[in-house]
Structures are given as C-alpha cells and as structure tokens.
Amino acid sequence: MINITTDKKRLAMLIAISSVSALGHNLAWSQQGAAVVLEEVLVTAQKREQNLQEVPVSITSFNAAELENKGITSITELEKSVPNTQFRASRATNSTLTAYIRGVGQQDPLWGFEPGVGVYVDDVYYARPQAAVMDVFDVERIEVLRGPQGTLYGKNTVGGAIKYITRKMTGEAEAKITVAAGAYGQQDLNIAGQFPVIENELYIGGAIARMERDGYGKVDTGYNINNATFNSSEENYNKDVLVARISAEYSPGDRLFIRLAADSTDDDSNQPCGSQSSPTALTNPSNGQPFVISNNPFDGACGTSHVSNVENSGFSLTVQYDLSETTTLKYIFAKREGETQQFIDFDGTPLDAFDVPAKYADDQKSHELQLNYTIDRLAVVAGLYYFTGNSAGAFDVVLNGLGGTPYMDGEHFDLAIGGDVDTESTSAYVNASYELLDNLTLTGGLRLTKDDKNSNIQRFSYNTTNSFPYTQNQGTGFTFGDPSNDTLLAVATDISDREASNDWSELSPSVKLDWQMNDDIMLYISYAEGFKSGGFDMRGNAATNPNVAQGYDPEIVETIEAGIKSQLLNDRLRLNFTIFDMNYTDMQLTVQTAQPAPVFFSSDVVNAGTAEIQGAELEALLQVTSGVSTSLSIGHMNAELTKVLSGGVDVSDSWEMLNAPDWTGQVGVNYERDLGDAGSLMLNTAASYRDSSRNFNNVVCSCDQDQSYTLLDASANWYSADEHWTVSLFVKNIEDKEYKTGGYNLGSGELAFYGPPRTWTASLAYAF
C-alpha cells in the first residue's frame, strides 16, 4: 500500500515556485498550423527507438540541446532534474560516482563492491565508479531509468541506470570549437569534429576537452609540531581534467553498421580535503592547542600529499546487421581499464593521525550478442552477455604511534589492506512485448545471471619508520612506502583466491501491462525484480570474523510500479505520474564494531538489512506559447529500514536509510525568442529543492545535510542566424547556498564535503 506522507509546507513551496519559474525540460517546440505543440521525445530505454510517452518505464531524457542550454557539464548535475535521485562525487574524490535512485545505490566505492546504479556509455557497462563522474560533451542524449533493469541490459542493475549516448556521425564534414571562462579561474576548451573518409560509407570523428579550474578553497597548514615546521598550500576542490574520444563508423550498405570507438580520461585534480564539521578532539602535540576550524567550508587542513590521479580508458566495437526487415543482430565488444592513486586524510588536521594513501586498478572485458525481432503485434529483444573483470587495490591506514599519540617523525602503527577480486558474469535475457489488443500491450521479461567471483584479501599490521605527511611515500610497501622500513606486527587476514571463492545464480523476472486509453493517455502497471551481486569484504578482519572467506550474498529489490503518461491540451502539456512500492531484502550493510587501540574499530559487510520504500514521481512540461515553456518535477520517498541485524539483535530503530531525501524537486521557466537576422535568444531559470539526508545508516553526523535547501540557477544563450556562433552565460547556485554532499564520522572527528558555491561561466562556440 503506497503511503505518501505529505509535507504540506514543502509541497506548497514547490507548487508556488512553479507558478513563477520552472525548468525548461525538453525545450524544443514546433508549429503545426496555428497550434503550439511539444516536440516528440525519442528514447531507447527498451533497446528500440520509441516515443517517451509510449514506454511503460520511469525515465527522464535529456537531449544535447537541452544539456547545452542549461549548462549541464557533469552527470552529477542531473540529480537536480530527475526525481528521487542523488548523483554525487564520492567523498574525498573528484570523479568517483556515488549514485542512488529511489534510495538504492552503493555508498562505498571500494573495489569488490557492485554499484547499485549502472552507468552505460553507448551500451557499454562501466563496472567501477572511478571516473564515472563523466563530463558532458559530444553527447546526443542522456537517459535516466528508475527501478531495476536487467531484462533489457547486458549487466543487471538493482536501482536503475544512467545511459550516456554519444553523438553519432551526420555524414558531413563539420567541427565545433567551444572556449569557456568563469569563476575561480575556470578555463575550458572543447574541440569536436568529424569528416567522411569515403562518402556515404566511412566516417571518422573525435572530441577532446580540457577543463581547468582553481579550487573553491585552500588547504593551508603552517604548524610547528614536535620541533618541526610543516607548511603546505594547495588548491581544494580544483579541477584539472583531460578527456578525449575518437570513433569511426562504417556503413557499406543499408544493412550493415560498424562502429569502433575509443576514449581516455586523465584527471589530475587534487582530491578534496574535507573540513571539520565539528571540532576535532585532536590537538597539536607540541602545545596541546586545538586546531582552528576555518570559517570557509571549502578550506581544509589535511596533512597528506595532494598528488592525485585517476586514469580511465577503453575501446568498444559495435556491429549491427539487419538480417531482414524484421530481424536485427547486434554485437558489442568492450575493453576498459583504469588506475587511481590518492591520499585521503580522515582526521582533517596537519597530523598524520589517520591518513590513508591508496591505489586502485581495474580492467574489464565484455561481449554482448543481441537479437531484435519485430513483426505485427510482437517485439522481442533477446541477448547473451559475458563479462570478465579484475578489480584490485591497496591502502594503508596510517594511524599513530604504538603508544596512541600522533607522531610527525615518520614512525607509525599502520594497517595495510589489499587484494583483488576476479569476476566472471554470464547471463541470458529476453524481453517480449505483445499487443493483446490494439490498445493493450503485455510485456514480459526474464533474466538468468550466474556470477563467479574469487578474491585474495590481506590485512596486516605494521610498524613503519619512514612515513611522513605531505609526501608521496606515506604508508608501507603495500602502497607508496618502502618495504625495508616495515616491521610486521600481526596478520589478521591472509586469504587466497582459492579460499575466497563463491558463485551466485539469480532468475529475475519483469512484467508490464500498458493500456493506451486514447491517443493522449497511457496507463501502465509493472513488477520487476533486480539484484546486486554478492562479493567479498576487502576490509574483512578474519581475526574477529572467521566467515570473511565466505563472502556476502546478493541483495534483492522487488518493485511494483503504476503510472500514467499523458499528452494533454492539444499536445501542449506533458504530464507523467508514477507511484512505486519496493521491497529491499538482504541489504549489504557495513556493520562496525569497537576494537581496542590502536585499531579502534573494525567493519564487516553482511546481509543484515531489510527496507521498504514507497514513493511517487511527477514530471510535467507545459508549452505556454511558442517561446515560453514551464515544467515541474517532484519526487517523494518514504524509505524505512524495517530490520537490521547486528550481533543477532534487530537494531533497525536506530538505523536510517542513507542518501534518500524525502522530497526532491525542480521548477523553472524557459523563454525563447527569434531575433530575425540578429539570431535567437534563449533564457532559462531553475529552482531545485532537496530535503535533508543522512550519510550513514547507523549514526547521526554533523557532516549530514540535516536541512533542506533550494538552489537557483540561470542561463542565457544567443545563437547567430547562420547557426555558426553561440554565446552563453551560466550562473549556478545564485544565492551561494552552503550544502553538504558527503562526509566521514570516525574516531578522529567528523569531516564534511560541500557542493559548489556560486559560480559563473561564459562561453563562446563556433561551428563550421
């Protein structure tokens, strides 16, 4: 039973704002005679091109023009427009994605965990969240699908999917150069182009983007500690990213299409240093004085090196062949690999009391063979998917001296944790839609998945004598240190991949029934199951939990959804409404237990939770006149943990769902005017609302965003009459609101990370 707890003040505020401003969502309009109508939106959510209003799926789609007009430069900004979603850069990172849809996701980006929300680029699944905070450029469309996905996709995803679709070739020789400058020293350059090698057959295209920006704050430390002076001044929340793509498309006839694509991302931005959201208990060991908290939330006092790097690259081959007018065969091969190095400061002070130097590496290969068959009343998508991947990593937990006092002389007690996970996933899926009547369609899907994983896990304790803050040789030989400086103290976990080996099989069904009540209104109801694969806890402490080698099992989400999609007022109003009820079982939760010094705590990943999530989503777009459109997006969730077992005791009364704000919404207005020979002008405003949310299931933290907030954005775009020139101005977070996007709550203190302050960007583009 759907139970929507209405907060009248918040809902009234959203509706009031919508009367004066709204988001220009799917902004294009067209004239049919004297009538002003909305433009049709085409999506490929069901692996074939369909009108958005005819797809019985909760989906929000953004085309290239809309993304450009609104100045959306990262997929994390989509959370403002899509109800019941939260897309963030993971705490202490710039390009690692933490994505939640309807309260389902994965908070911890540690290797070995499966993401709850799948990211696909041109139908290629990204297995790791590193480098998944993608910059938006050279894109044709982005689709966000809510709810379990699996009977139509190569890799099963339990919460939903983000589909990033790059721009296809037009067959013409063309190019576009965009330069941008803005607040905090922003300097961006984007060059994209394509040309035919063989007319009407072979095309080559590519794009490259360089994005640089100073930090929103500084990491400044200048302390005399134990008769040594440590000084550091670094940018905090800066950006230094280089992204490139290249592709070739070959179409020797009407039936065969071949596409080869490659991409590379190199992110040299400093990892963000969190700021103390509450005073730390740590003091300067030289004088006993506390470390002063800056008034600027973007400032920090981390004592680690700020040298960070994320590299990710890959290529894919897509071959599509039309066997007949009714049958198409498609094959996709992809290979990707990535490397990350970073230094995380969990204490947020110049002390090296809780520093974590870390490095990760991953690679993946996938094959997908897909069959599309459409005839009369029947449409079938069937496929085979095979995935292999290795995800590895190591990190040191540089804690303190053996006596429990933070040292700055290079000698430390250190926890060294490392290992890797090999994954082999094989699946088969089928999805069939059959028109029972001219206006009634039944869709059924089934997916069989078998995952095999093995892992080696190591957790050692060392005393290391040459680990210094502000340097790149912190830690032990596990990461960036020198093994000759390490003295082994204890072995808590040393598990080989022969010991930690397991496999899981799952059959996931889905069924949908949609009724085209008339030309303007479609009703649907659906049921779907999704699962997130099991795995092994890479931090597992076998000394306290002898079951580490057995791993944890998959988690399951069962979703019932009912919705209405409508096109009213002579195609001037698009109104879509959905309600859903989710049963979330065997949740993979991290349960922490206290340990004696110098370790202080340990954590175990177990299938300990059950949750119930109910909610509703409303998306509306009104074309008021040929030049004015308004829209409204509202999401509501009531997400509750109903059972959490810790030590055999249900502690759900003290636990809450994380990253699941009760209310989200956005409203705005778009204005477009034809200036004749002077070109055209487009103005956008948007107000985005987000309720409070938690960062941890089991503890309240000062790093939580414990209050609701609204962000105001605006943009202006001028297009020349010859369509060559574009001049744009974007202003985001106009009121300079302060809001938290993540945090840590550990024994060393509480740290918060913040969303961007008020920024502006001016850009100039020339297309030829």
CATH homologous superfamily caption = TonB-dependent receptor, beta-barrel domain
Helix content: under 10%
| Count of extended strands | 40
What's the overall average pLDDT, rounded?
89
What is the strand content? over 45%
The CATH class, by name, is Mainly Beta
What does the radius of gyration come to? Answer: 26 Å
Overall number of structural domains: 1
Give the helix/strand class.
mainly beta
The poorly predicted ranges are 1-34
Q: State the separation between the terminal residues, measured CA to CA.
A: 56 Å
Largest sheet: 22 strands, antiparallel, barrel
CATH topology assignment: Maltoporin, Chain A
CATH architecture title? Beta Barrel
Quaternary state of this entry equals single chain
Coarse shape: globular
What would you say about this model in short?
2% of the residues lie in helices and 58% in strands. The chain has 768 residues and is an all-beta fold. The strands form seven sheets. It has a 22-stranded antiparallel barrel.
Describe this structure in words.
By secondary structure, this protein is mostly beta strands. It has a single domain, classed as TonB-dependent receptor, beta-barrel domain (Maltoporin, Chain A). The strands form seven sheets. It has a 22-stranded antiparallel beta barrel. The chain has a five-stranded mixed sheet with strand order 5-11-12-9-10. A hairpin with a 2-residue loop joins strand 1 and strand 2 (35-38). The model is unreliable at 1-34 (pLDDT under 50). Its main location: membrane. Residues 284-734 form the TonB-dependent receptor-like beta-barrel domain. It is found in: Cell outer membrane. Residues 1-24 form the signal peptide.
